[in-house]
Design brief:
314 residues; 11 helices; disordered N terminus; three-stranded mixed sheet; mainly alpha; disordered C terminus
């Protein structure tokens, strides 16, 4: 009978602990290392908040802020609950602007602006929560530190029937110090988007939502993109393809713990979406375009004057 040397036994135990402890910890607390939004010193965070506030003021001044406070209060309440569930140390403020483009964007300092196009396209509060969670993830990961200074304000200001889903840099790729830097920036942006998608799914679970809502929203977004002529592709694309984002989420979700479903007021979401879609109907008739998530508006029927109708009778 062989007896293991004490040093050998200790080494073996150390290897076993190093191998299996991370697995046990992951199973016990898979989201323990979620980013908290602590992006530097207090002074740097204050400066970032001032810069972000200035950007948001440009969006609200040049865009179309949603006037009805009930929708703004609803989105802000939903966003604050999601931010709290994410474990973020960042302060947040959420704003709604009228724009049929399916877009949302975060700015330094915890400012998030969401287009009404997202609300119109979503089929549930969980889907809307998935978009807000994505922007919260960008803030918690401090992605604004590597984003272009001005971001893509025009994607939120211009009222156009485009279909995108922006992060901290929107859909913009700014020209800089040559192709190498531009390609590296685009690749970094795509990686940040993929990370934000994964974190958003975890936030949904923590807040009691079905994480599949994110993939379902991407599926609907992909359909809208196909109707509107596709999405940016290639090495310079700042976002992964929507179909890839959908597939990546479908691979990530089975690894998450089951959500403890909380009671959510779906009726309130439906009322808010109805208000947006009603306004969309008016806007679509004025500009003559189909809104994301809507069928083409039916033409208004006209009647011939009675005298004209009588004159053609046999």
């Amino acid at each position: 009978m062989e007896v293991a040397h004490p040093r050998t036994g200790s080494l073996t135990l150390l290897v076993l602990v190093a191998t299996f402890l991370p697995l046990v910890a992951r199973g016990r607390a898979p989201d323990a290392l979620l980013p908290s939004g602590d992006c530097g010193s207090r002074q740097s965070m204050l400066q970032a908040a001032q810069a972000g506030k200035g950007m948001v003021q440009q969006v609200l001044a040049r865009g179309m802020p949603w006037a009805d406070k009930s929708l703004n209060e609803y989105v802000n309440r939903l966003g604050q609950n999601l931010a709290r569930s994410s474990g973020s140390q960042q302060a947040f403020a959420f704003y709604v602007v009228y724009n049929p483009a399916v877009n949302a964007q975060s700015f330094p300092g915890g400012f998030v602006v969401i287009n009404t196009g997202v609300i119109s396209l979503a089929e549930s509060e969980a889907e809307l929560a998935s978009v807000l969670s994505h922007e919260i993830a960008h803030q918690n990961s401090c992605d604004w530190r590597t984003a272009p200074a001005r971001g893509n304000l025009f994607g939120l200001i211009a009222v156009v029937p485009a279909v995108v889903l922006g992060g901290p840099t929107g859909m913009a790729i700014v020209s800089g110090s040559g192709w190498a830097a531009t390609l590296a920036r685009a690749r970094s942006n795509r990686q940040a988007e993929e990370r934000a998608d994964r974190l958003a799914a975890q936030y949904l679970v923590r807040a009691g939502y079905d994480p599949n809502a994110g993939a379902q929203f991407f599926e609907r977004l992909r359909t809208e993109q196909q109707r509107s002529g596709g999405e940016p592709r290639g090495l310079l694309a700042s976002h992964p393809r929507t179909v890839d984002r959908e597939r990546n989420l479908e691979k990530t979700i089975p690894q998450l713990p089951p959500p403890e479903f909380a009671l959510h007021d779906e009726a309130e979401f439906l009322r808010m979406r109805r208000a947006v879609r009603d306004y969309d109907e008016i806007y679509s008739r004025v500009v003559g375009v189909r809104m994301p998530g809507h069928d083409a508006p039916l033409p208004e029927l006209t009647r011939r004057p009675p005298t004209e109708a009588a004159s053609i009778r046999p």
